[in-house]
Amino acid sequence: MTEANTNLNIDTEEIEKAESCENEVKESQVKPNIRRGNEIKDWVKSIIIAAFIAVLLMQLIVPTVVREHSMEPSFYGGDYLIVGKINYKLTDPKRGDVIIFKSDIPMNPGEPSQSKKLLIKRIIGLPGDVINISDGEVSINGKVIDEPYINEGGTPGDVVNYVVPKDNYFVMGDNRTVSIDSRRNEVGPVQKDRIVGKALIRLYPFNKIGLIK
User: I need a surface site. Which of 46, 73, 110, 181 has the fewest CB within 10 A?
Assistant: First the structure.
């Protein structure tokens, strides 16, 4: 009887050990699954946050590459700029601001149905200003303005007592001899709702990186 009880105890211990080992195996299988599940959740969370930030940034800023020569010597072809889209929702454009705006000039001349060009110019005249251009000089409200940013050659053309309409802006490129701007009928004054944003930062070339003044 004693021997039988001993065998019974041994069998019970072995069963308990076997069950314990089985539970450990199950736990070891479950834990990696839990870790993988947590890793997937973290990845999904990171992707959602990154996408949200990207969408938010797209609403606030837009990268722009200068393509033409109309803003030399301030900006050259290939300059990479960051344009603030929210600036003029908070404040009105100011004289001297460099802006990007939607024009009516087709990307491909002769194909008016194609998309239109985005232009980069500098605001010269504000709503209500009286603009005069004569002998290469620009006058605003009867006073010749100092323009150290323009290219050599002054400002060609003649404008006589032009009053900038309400909610519009008179813009010109810094390279006045080649710039197609508010002096030309193709562009004319720029309505505020056509302004994409204000040029804020130059990121490239690296030796000119910095805020745009």
Answer: 110
